[in-house]
Specification:
416 residues; Immunoglobulin-like; 3 domains; five-stranded mixed β-sheet; 31 strands
């Protein structure tokens, strides 16, 4: 009984100390790297130092993703920066302090979280997106690449206690001559506004900005999120629409709180749409008023051809046969089209290339097929009706032996 009382007393004494340590900031989607740039900042709100030896960061990837080493403590009012291996070299901003402790960690960019634990006790937790673990109250909706989740309060609800912003990462030890003040300024004219337009698909994360890659001969669809803000009442923001090149795309209303509301929708583009920088306009409605904002993305180039890949016919020796293929441009680049071929063989017998004529425009222009590429069309225009018919006239001698003759014709496109 005496041991039990001692244990209960120890728990009662330690619990407030545990509660004074909290997760102050999380960077889970850095710009420069997915391996080495992530970090979690802890803060000790107690008037005494707290020993955090063997405390654990649990994540979606591992229940013990990071284990703090022995003799690790956080000073009163101080910070402890925990970062992924290589953070000192790969951090987005060289002015950020080096971490107090580095260990390989994995923080997922979507629908995840991180929990600070001691043995089986959860000290604090932060979740983002549509996660079902490692969060308090409600998860935060999440941040864009390069932003961090930074604590501004401690109500027990992640969606209220954390905001998205530029990472700060205070130094681990407090300066007695420095007072750190968190500042948040909200300027509003009481009109709704679009805080951000986020294209959720990026086909080239290594490049700056957003790149959308066309799909050959198909429609490309990508998802977009709008976050709108209304200081009076977010429910007054009724609808949201995306406009791209004069085409409207309706959005679906999603999560909201008193001031913020999210919309999700899909934008579609054809494979033959021009490769260039596009502006995407978002419009929200409230009452009889509209409010808009613009973001941009790059629709990258695509060069591709399509046609049937088999030709066949049957006819007696001494005759000829015309076979036509239709070449389609299924990209968004203008192309030069060339063809070449090989002799058609049947054992030791053959139909030589000298007996094969190639034509476009009903043989107004024709040439003899050869083993080297020859240009058949100077320009194949961009567009869904961009087609070119190429006809092969295959003739044979009277004494040609019966049988199946096989070879290849090849078509190639070159970007102009």
């Amino acid at each position: 009984m005496k041991k039990l009382l001692i244990l209960l007393c120890a728990l009662l004494i330690c619990q407030p100390v545990f509660g004074s340590v909290m997760i102050a900031e999380v960077l889970y989607d850095p710009i420069n790297t997915e391996n080495g740039g992530e970090a979690v900042l802890l803060y000790n709100d107690n008037v005494e130092p707290v020993d955090v030896s063997n405390w654990i960061l649990a994540t979606k990837a591992s229940s013990a993703d990071v284990v703090l080493p022995p003799d690790t403590s956080i000073l009163a009012g101080g910070y402890l920066l925990i970062a992924d291996s290589g953070f000192s070299l790969d951090k987005d901003d060289s002015s950020w302090p080096d971490p107090d402790y580095e260990e390989a960690m994995t923080l997922a960019n979507t629908d995840a979280g991180v929990a600070l634990m001691f043995e089986n006790i959860t000290i604090d937790a932060v979740g983002w997106g549509n996660t079902n673990e490692f969060y308090e109250g409600n998860p935060h909706p999440g941040v864009i690449e390069g932003e961090s989740l930074r604590r501004i309060s401690d109500t027990g609800d992640n969606s209220i206690d954390f905001v998205a912003g530029t990472p700060v990462f205070y130094d681990s030890g407090p300066d007695p001559l420095e007072i750190i003040i968190d500042v948040e300024i909200n300027i509003t004219n009481n009109n709704p506004e679009i805080l951000r337009i986020e294209i959720l698909d990026d086909d080239n994360t290594s490049a700056d900005g957003i790149q959308i890659k066309p799909l050959a001969d198909e429609v490309k669809t990508f998802e977009v999120m709008i976050e709108a803000f209304d200081a009076d009442n977010s429910s007054e923001v009724e609808t949201a629409t995306l406009i791209l090149d004069g085409i409207e795309f309706e959005m679906i209303k999603g999560e909201n709180n008193d001031t913020n509301v999210f919309f999700l929708g899909n934008v579609s583009m054809n494979y033959f749409d021009e490769a260039q920088e596009y502006n995407l306009t978002a419009i929200i409605t409230s009452g009889n008023q509209e409010f808009s904002n613009i973001t941009s993305f790059e629709y990258t180039s695509l060069a591709a051809l399509s046609t049937n890949t088999w030709l066949g016919s049957t006819f007696p020796p001494g005759n000829s046969s015309m076979e036509t293929i239709t070449i389609r441009n299924i990209g968004n680049q203008a192309l030069l089209v060339s063809v070449k071929g090989s002799n058609l063989l049947n054992g030791n017998n053959q139909i030589s290339l000298e007996n094969i004529q190639v034509s476009v425009n009903n043989f107004e222009n024709s040439f003899t097929l050869s083993e080297n590429y020859q240009e058949v069309a100077e320009y194949l225009a961009i567009g869904e009706n961009s087609e070119l018919e190429i006809t092969f006239n295959i003739s044979t001698d009277e004494g040609l032996s019966s049988g199946s003759y096989h070879g290849q014709f090849r078509v190639k496109g070159e970007i102009i």
